[in-house]
Request: fold
Amino acid sequence: MALAHHSRRPATGWSWPQRRRTGAPTARFTAARLAALEAAGKPVFVNLTADWCVTCLINERVALDSAGVRQAFAARGIVALKGDWTNRNPEITTLLQQYGRSGVPLYLLYGDKGDPVILPQIMNSFVEQLVRHGRPTRFWISRREVGQKP
Reply:
């Protein structure tokens, strides 16, 4: 039985398949934009991600990129910010370090005041709680109460 020879060169003209995006509309993350939204008392969901982060891509595909999330965010006035760390944006690096992280994903949910809740790296439970119950169960609990460092 002969084995086919496969070249190690990447195929030309290939790209990731495009998918229809149905999730919550997002704005590009900047520290200034986050500060302005916090000052205005808006709830904010921050999604720090990278093109090479498999966990991030799976979370977006199976949890965050859905009509249910879009509707839940709109109903609650949650503004979604997306920070792309693909090329190691220093502004995003600073935020990651602020929360003791050395990489992505990092999901933060800011209420109308106070510190954000750090959400799990696997997003299914967060999205289910948001869509079914109107908020994640930990949304209004302080970071100290959930055992996170202040």
Remarks:
- DSSP finds five helices and five strands in the chain.
